[in-house]
Specification:
The structure holds 2 protein chains of 2 kinds. Chain A is α/β, with parallel strands linked by helices. Chain A has helices spanning about 40-50, 75-80, 95-110, 115-120, 120-130, 150-165, 185-190, 205-210, 235-245; strands at about 1-10, 15-25, 30-35, 55-65, 65-70, 80-85, 165-170, 195-200, 215-220, 225-230. The radius of gyration of chain A is 18 Å and the shape is globular. The two termini of chain A are about 30 Å apart. By secondary structure, chain B is α/β, with parallel strands linked by helices. Chain B folds into 2 domains: about 5-280, no CATH class; about 395-448, no CATH class. Chain B is about 30% helix and about 30% strand. Chain B starts with 10 loop residues before the first helix and ends with a helix. The chains are: A alpha/beta, B alpha/beta. The interface of A and B includes residues 53 and 84 of A.
């Protein structure tokens, strides 16, 4: 369903290698966890999948439902059904979530949205916000302007739920969320269609309340250094990696 | 038979304007006095008008064309660029011809008449200025030149000498006008006067909103536009004045606008500038009564071969007065935007406050943004804040919006509409929608 094959990525300006020969894949409905210390290349991987123009995919392929993504624009990738939940969501002054989400929704659904959804989009939004326990008033705020770190993360999750993507990539969704609010992540993931696949980047999945993964990959220094791709004993695998520390890898 | 039109100004021309309009003697004298001032005054040394590309020669322009003398322009003479803009903005054909100076009249006349009846019942006077001078000579004489005297500057003197068109609105004490007065409906009379003179008098405790201009581009021959707007805001009265300027680029737009605000009165000035080659405009707030307040919110779009030199003036003459000035500019293709602000706080204006915020957004390389604030405070308990900043649309913002399915063009438009939001939300709905469309159009032109 989604696969990264022998992917090597450089930064356009400096030519520095940020990802080196990365390979993994995930099937429909599966969950994959990416672990790794700061600077290991996790966020670079997200950017490469997103289609950040400052990155050069010098070797390898990214495929989604048998379609090669390498040369697709970021919005074309999004329209295929890939959603990225940002670690640090961007602020856009003066543009309300309400308005932004309406136009994004129309673009992402590309005619698949029913008339009633479009006519009464605000109600759709509010229902979803209620469903995961997000303050509806945030919808009237400007995109991430003046929001706390936790609120920003919640709005990323709300977008995920609204867009109903086929593949979700969440980059440290728990950072900025307190121990109570962190529960919202599992709640939001529970509202996704069953066949949606999830790639989670996290330092501590247990804190989020996620323990079992179909696959786990561990990154260090731009490479994948360890993999558990059978899903068997993923709890123990994660526990051991975190217990021994990344230095041991 | 059409008389031969003359370039330049002369005393004979002024007499002719005055007699063509059957004006009272005081107005004829006012025009002559203003003409004398115009001849003596110089264009300020700092004005960008001195630049060679504007090659300003006052004798090169026509200053007075009677409506009946106007030779109707042929639709084929209207430049393709302007016609394309009407097309993209979805302006109806009848209105397009009117805006481009092809059609002489516009259908909204009927709407205007019914509106006027309602207003008359409330005691409101809303006339084009030429009519008002004859119909209400004493009232007009009382206010004409009272807030913006002809001696204010060279261009207000020019306007005083040869003004033609504009609006006169008088709102009696305590009257609340709940529909915006719109000078667009009058343009068939005023005929987009290049030297219109508009006066709004809002007596104590009254409330009125006035709209001037339109979002769609107005095509004109190479010309000077030197309008004057004078607004009197009585005690506890409220006035909102919105202007939209979109002249073609061969117009030099040199406007003088000032409001005098009495005790606890309030003015909101919303000023949008998209067109014209050069705009010089500095709406001024004369805060003369205790607790008077005003806000100037301006947005300019400057592109290729365009320059705007504008800013707000706040003159605090009484205690507890407050002015908020927010000036935004979107700059592309080498456009030049200068904010030139004046804040003066007199000795008497204790505990006064002025907040100035200027922001320029660059859409590409090569544009220029300058800020020239001039602040004088004569007491030690007032505050003036001045902030200015420059923005660029960041790659991160574009990428974020694209990751939500918006293509690059839509993403860019959304970021810009966020930037203009504080401005557009002050406009009536139909203006705001048209303005957003216009900005989208300007942004998609020539931006990589």
């Amino acid at each position: 369903m989604f696969s990264v094959k022998n992917l090597t990525v450089k930064v356009h300006d400096s030519g520095g290698v940020v990802l080196n020969n990365i390979s993994f894949s995930i099937e429909s409905g599966q969950k994959l966890l990416i672990l790794g210390p700061n600077g290991s290349g996790k966020s670079s991987l997200v950017k490469a999948i997103l289609g950040d123009p400052s990155y050069d995919l010098s070797e390898g392929e990214i495929n989604f439902n048998e379609k090669k993504l390498n040369d697709l624009k970021p919005y074309e990738r999004a329209r295929l059904g890939i959603f990225i939940g940002y670690q640090n969501p961007v602020t856009i002054e003066g543009l309300s979530f309400n308005e932004f989400l309406f136009f994004s929704y129309l673009d992402l659904k590309r005619g698949r949205a029913g008339d009633s959804e479009v006519d009464d989009f605000r109600t759709v939004l509010e229902k979803k916000a209620d469903g995961i326990g997000i303050d509806k008033r945030l919808l009237d705020r400007n995109v991430n302007e003046g929001l706390s770190g936790g609120e920003k993360k919640m709005m990323e999750l709300l977008q995920m739920v609204i867009f109903e993507p086929k593949l979700v990539i969440l980059d440290e969704p728990d950072s900025g969320l307190d121990s109570d609010s962190v529960k919202i992540i599992v709640k939001a993931l529970g509202l996704l269609p069953k066949e949606s696949s999830v790639i989670l980047i996290s330092h501590d999945p247990a804190r989020i309340g996620l323990y079992d993964f179909d696959k786990v990959v561990v990154m260090k220094d731009t490479e994948i250094v360890k993999t558990n791709d059978t899903g068997a004993n993923s709890r123990d695998f994660i526990k051991n990696v975190l217990k021994e520390g990344y230095k041991a890898l | 038979m059409t008389e031969k039109l003359q370039k330049g100004i002369s005393e004979e021309l002024i007499d002719k304007i005055s007699s063509d309009n059957n004006e009272p003697e005081w107005m004829r004298r006012y025009r002559h006095a203003a003409y004398n001032a115009f001849r003596v005054f110089k264009v300020p040394s700092w004005a960008p008008l001195h630049k060679s590309e504007y090659s300003l020669d006052f004798d090169e322009f026509f200053y007075y064309i009677r409506a009946s003398d106007k030779t109707a322009r042929n639709w084929d003479d209207v430049p393709q660029e302007i016609r394309d803009k009407y097309e993209k903005l979805g302006i109806p054909q009848g209105e397009r011809e009117f805006l481009a100076g092809v059609g002489a009249q516009y259908e909204s006349r009927m709407i205007y008449h019914s509106l006027r009846e309602e207003l008359t019942q409330m005691g409101v006077i809303f006339e084009d200025m030429n009519t008002a001078v004859n119909k209400y000579p004493e009232l007009v004489e009382k206010y004409f030149g009272s807030v913006v005297p002809y001696a204010n500057n060279k261009f207000s003197a020019l306007n005083g000498a040869i003004w033609n068109g504009g609006s006169f609105a008088y709102i009696p004490k305590g009257v609340y006008v709940d529909m915006p007065l719109h000078n667009f409906f009058q343009m068939h009379v005023a005929s987009q006067g290049q030297f219109e003179h508009t006066i709004i008098v809002a007596e104590d405790e009254s409330n009125v909103e006035f709209l001037e201009g339109c979002v769609a581009p107005i095509y004109s021959e190479k010309s000077i536009h030197a309008g004057v707007v004078e607004i009197y805001v009585g005690k506890r009265a409220k006035v909102k004045f919105s202007t939209m300027q979109n002249w073609s680029k061969n117009v030099l737009n040199l406007v003088t606008k000032k409001a005098l605000i009495e005790e606890d009165g309030r003015i909101d000035w919303v000023d949008g500038n998209v067109g014209s080659g050069l705009t010089m405009k500095y709406p001024a707030l004369m805060l003369s009564g205790k607790g008077a307040s005003g806000r100037i919110l301006s947005l300019a779009f400057v592109g290729d071969k365009q320059e705007i030199d504008a800013g707000g003036k706040a003159i605090h003459l009484a205690p507890f007065t407050r002015a908020d000035i927010e000036s935004k500019a979107i700059i592309k293709s080498g456009g030049i935007s200068t904010y030139r602000g004046d804040v003066f706080v007199s000795e008497k204006a204790n505990n006064s406050l002025t907040q100035v915020n200027c922001v320029s957004m660059f859409l590409d390389e090569g544009g220029v943004s300058k800020t020239i604030p001039n602040i004088k405070i004569k007491n030690d308990n007032s505050t003036v804040n001045h902030e200015s900043s420059i923005l660029k649309i960041s790659q991160e913002q574009l990428l974020y919006l694209q990751s939500r399915g918006l293509n690059e063009q839509s993403a860019r438009s959304m970021i810009i509409s966020g930037f203009t939001d504080s401005f557009t939300k002050e406009l009536p709905m139909e203006y705001a929608v048209e303005f957003d469309r216009l900005v989208n159009m300007e942004v998609s032109d020539g931006v990589a």
